[in-house]
Amino acid sequence: MVEIREVPEADIDRALELAYLVFHDRPEKEGRERHHELLRACLRIGAYEGDAIVGFMAAHAFRLSVPGADLPCPGLTFVSVAPTHRRRGVLTALMGEMLRRAGAEGSPVAALWASEAAIYGRFGYGSATQGATIEIDSTRPLALRIEADRRPLRLVATADPKEAVAVVGPYHEAARAVRAGRPTRSERRWTEEWLIEQDEEDEELSPPRIIVLGEPGAPIAGYVLYRTKPEGDTGGVRTPGLVRVDELEADTPQAAAALWECVASLDLTGRVTAWGRPADDPLLHFAADRDQVRVTAAFPALWLRLVDVAAALTRRSWAAPVELVLELTDVRLPANAGRFLLKAGPDGATYEPAAAGRAPDLTLDVRELAACYLGGTRAVELAAAALVVEHTPGAAAALDAGLRTALLPHTADEF
């Protein structure tokens, strides 16, 4: 019989062995030690059969930027079930316990990155942000339609990650409030994930480099975090030197243009790649040649779960007045299910059971509401896909208008 319970610190290494088995991973000693330390700070739930761990799930204690607010949000990670125990309800039991704890601790939302997109919808998670991979042909100067910010650019030393975090950390934290969907990034996460010297996925990449824009002594106007790889030869075919942009943040399009222009002009390189860029990245508009700047992939990024729908809807801001009756289904958390009257606008929101006999304007599952919650998915598109039922003409568009944000939600913080 499988029992769901917390995983004590003494069992972290055994839980990691299960995760490595499931994800076909074999980290070196340094990577294992880093994962161990990371999990010490997480909530850890295990499925035990006797003394054996046959399922595991952990959660970071994040806060997530949502429109107008910052909400507690467990970030699920290391989700794994032993190959001998698949399709036996282990993942369902782990997820049920994690969601129960999230609700008990007052977290209106939970989030994860899906290793397999087909899995998490059935647990009420919706794809709430989208990411894009951008590639720049940097064998020639980057052509721009706008004038780049000409304030000075300077390197920030990363040999001491804490000093680098002191420069860019506050800027990143301020940027979280501008664009929804971003989890908090602790100093440990900066130093052990973003600024770790050796990239786990590609040993040929350089240590991280940071370039900031702005006058010395003044607040920075943006930064780019990147790694490089020298020119190579694959099967007799020359591969140009690579710049991999891990993060680029800027105050203005002109500041962003200066940073993109900089990384696209690095000596001995001919290609820039940037994974996990927002779908509304200004680069895609101010680049003068879209054959030079291409989107090579687009994908679901952060998956969101509304744990307490009422709290989630009433604690975010709303862009336009909305008054709708929602018929909501939620098979995992029945307290969320039912017919509710949503009244929301710039002055706040209420979400209460609808009066008896009042007909719904929209019928949808909590998964679809989660996908729309940050403003990154439009209810009208889900209605066109027959995933939202619109009983009152214009109801989906009205919900979209209320949920709309100036910038699309986005994060590249994979966890």
**CATH architectural category of the largest domain:** 3-Layer(aba) Sandwich
Number of H- or I-type helical stretches: 11
What's the pLDDT, averaged over the residues? 96
The Rg value, from CA coordinates, equals 23 Å
Which strand order does the major sheet show? 1-2-3-4-5-16-6
* Number of beta-strand segments: 21
Q: CATH superfamily assignment of the largest domain? A: Gcn5-related N-acetyltransferase (GNAT)
Q: Into which percentage range does the β-strand content fall?
A: 25-35%
* Biggest sheet features: 7 strands, mixed
Low-confidence stretches: none
**Portion of residues in helices?**
25-40%
Under CATH, the topology of the largest domain can be stated as Aminopeptidase
* Overall geometric form: globular
Could you characterize what this model shows?
The mean pLDDT is 96. Helix content is 26%, strand content 33%. Strand 17 and strand 18 form a beta hairpin. The chain is of the alpha+beta class and 415 residues long. A seven-stranded mixed β-sheet has the order 1-2-3-4-5-16-6, with helices on both faces.
Fold blueprint:
Elements: E1 2-6, H1 12-22, H2 29-40, E2 43-49, E3 52-66, E4 69-81, H3 90-104, E5 109-113, E6 126-127, E7 130-137, E8 153-156, H4 161-178, H5 187-194, E9 209-213, E10 222-229, E11 232-234, E12 237-239, E13 242-250, H6 253-263, E14 271-278, H7 283-286, E15 293-300, E16 302-306, H8 309-315, E17 322-329, E18 338-345, E19 348-353, E20 362-365, H9 366-373, H10 379-384, E21 389-390, H11 395-403
